[in-house]
Design goal:
Layout (H helix, E strand, L loop, with lengths): L1 H21 L1 E7 L5 E6 L2 E5 L4 E6 L6 E11 L5 E5 L18 E8 L3 E7 L8 E5 L7 E4 L3 H4 L5 E2 L2 E2 L2 H5 L2 H4 L9 H9 L15 E4 L4 E5 L2
Parallel strand pairs: 1-14
Antiparallel strand pairs: 1-4, 2-3, 2-5, 5-6, 5-7, 7-8, 8-13, 9-10, 9-14, 11-12
Family: Belongs to the thaumatin family.
Organism: Theobroma cacao (Cacao)
Keywords: Disulfide bond, Signal
Amino acid sequence: MSSFKTLPTLSFLFVTLFSLAHAATFDIRNNCPYTVWAAAVPGGGRPMNRGETWQISAAPGTTQARIWARTNCQFDASGRGKCQTGDCGGVLECKGYGSPPNTLAEYAIGQFANQDFIDISNIDGFNVPMEFSSNSPGCTRVIKCTADIVGQCPNELKVPGGCNGPCPVFKTEEHCCNSGNCGPTNFSKFFKDRCPDAYSYPKDDPTSLFTCPTGTNYKVIFCP
């Protein structure tokens, strides 16, 4: 009887160790000359002064994950408050996605053919310059979006602290592509011209979605 009791424990231990061995780590660094409140789903959130780092991890099978920076935040001792950009429901440790505008590092770990999928997206707008890149020798991918998008933002998309995406502003099929059948617009081209490796509209996959082998670790830098 005792041997049957130990088998589930050993199986659980093996699965746990296997998952840990293949979990991806994300080293997040703030190089901005101001404090940002880093956010990650999964992961939570925390304030980061210039030069500070934060490491999170994600298990294989993690999908629809995001890392972003929030700006001009105020939180009380209980972790309740609000941010000018990227706010995630008024909490310090995010459980859900942030409000536009926010520059996004997006990823899915351990997907088809043992590949990770990574991208930077401006579909929800732009608030902080970003680099999202491999931190492992097996992949050399570097994605950056560092243009002065806030300073050059079209008047229709300007908001305090950022440059909003056209979908959150106009909420039309042309910009949001809910049907899955859409093309670039003048507003999406504004983002694409300045950050050619970043998503500018929902069907921008061919020039914006990149892969690394599962087992790669990553870094996300605010203001690289």
